[in-house]
Write a structure and sequence with these properties.
alpha/beta; 376 residues
């Protein structure tokens, strides 16, 4: 009887290979729609679009988006709003054995995400009859992509002098947007990635794992050696056994080391007043929020602090209390984005074990962004 009990426990701990393979073929998209009464024509539609970090598998963020969706849906301050939370895996991180895409660099990923964003806006417009207001979220290199999406959006509107969706804010989580190669992990990564053939060697090892190690056993190793929760263990196993996931991650990582250097954005991106020709209420003014970890191995403390000193608005912890978010004429620093450093120990990869606490912070920032935008 004891042996049978241990055998049943073992089967529960390690999913059967067939079921594990099916789980690893998870969608490259996450979506949480509104549960509100869709017949309410006065409700405002909001799309919160998440851009993942590297490795860019969106299932890592499922508990985070689920928790954030529940918090927004239950918020008394947002009763007249319908929320659509969506995120996609980056290109090259597909976990199925279908058509294998070419390796995508940082600029390829920016264009890919930009196209996906417009597809989601069109889908919500077609479904609800209303164009959603958009809040972007970016994690790690996804924060860099976020700023580039803002730049493209503004350029598109100003050059075409046409209406587009309202991009009303951005939330940048553990952002790696300047000099990533100077961070502790960046120094190691840039050294290793500079070795000729390193990406091919790592990819070959991953290929060997894909063929030699059963999915269920790989899941078990990750779950119990790395102490990952179920969603993270499954996603990591899927990443290791994906067609080009390891190679794409290294290829993109090399691009990050080479391209993420100096602050490349001007006032119009960092939060200055909207220029003539844009939507009347399309503004990132004072609605960018940056949140760094206190001890983040992918962010050099000096570059982070230099960026905060040069670009950040530090006087008020709440966006609602700020002297200028479209509410009044701006004092000299009123347009700058809000920048915060975690006062706890949330790690860079928050989506593994700290989704709930970060979702609680993001809920407050979303409410502030909407409050500021509606007050313009």
């Amino acid at each position: 009887m004891a042996g049978q009990s241990r055998k049943k426990t073992w089967r529960r701990l390690i999913p059967q290979t067939e079921k594990m393979d099916q789980a690893m073929e998870a969608s490259t998209k996450l979506y949480y729609g509104s549960s509100s009464d869709q017949s309410n024509t006065n409700a405002l539609e909001y799309l919160i679009f998440l851009i993942p970090g590297n490795p860019g598998l969106i299932p890592f963020y499922d508990p985070f988006l689920s928790a954030l969706h529940a918090l927004l849906e239950s918020s008394p301050a947002l009763r007249s709003s319908n929320f659509h939370l969506c995120g996609h895996s980056l290109r090259g991180f597909e976990t199925t054995q279908g058509d294998v895409p070419h390796l995508a660099g940082l600029q390829d990923q920016i264009k890919y995400v930009d196209d996906l964003l417009y597809e989601r806006v069109d889908e919500i417009r077609d479904t609800t009859g209303h164009t959603p207001k958009v809040i972007l979220m970016g994690h790690s290199v996804g924060a860099y992509i976020l700023l580039e999406i803002i730049r493209r959006h503004r350029t598109r509107i100003e050059s075409l002098l046409a209406q587009d969706f309202d991009l009303i804010g951005g939330i940048l989580l553990f952002p790696t947007i300047t000099h990533i190669a100077r961070s502790p992990s960046g120094i190691v990564a840039s050294t290793l990635l500079s070795i000729p053939g390193s990406a091919h060697v790592a990819s070959a090892i991953a290929t060997a794992l894909m063929y030699l190690i059963p999915s269920s056993f790989l899941y078990w190793l990750i779950r119990f050696i790395m102490r990952f929760p179920d969603h993270a263990a499954r996603t990591t196993a899927a990443f290791i056994k994906s067609p080009i996931g390891i190679k794409e991650s290294l290829f993109l990582g090399k691009d990050e080391m080479d391209q993420i250097t100096d602050d490349r954005w001007g006032k119009e991106i960092w939060g200055a007043a909207t220029e003539p020709g844009t939507n009347s209420k399309d503004t990132i003014s004072s609605n960018l929020v940056f949140f760094w970890g206190r001890h983040d191995a992918w962010v050099a403390k000096r570059t982070r602090n230099d960026l905060i000193n040069a670009r950040g608005y530090r006087d008020s912890p709440s966006l609602k209390k700020r002297p200028s978010s479209g509410l009044t004429d701006s004092p000299v620093e009123g347009w700058k984005p809000s920048m915060f450093i975690d006062d706890g120990r949330i790690p860079h990869g928050f989506c593994i074990k700290h989704s709930g606490v970060v979702a609680g912070k993001v809920q407050g920032w979303v409410e502030d962004i909407i409050y500021n935008h509606d007050a313009i």
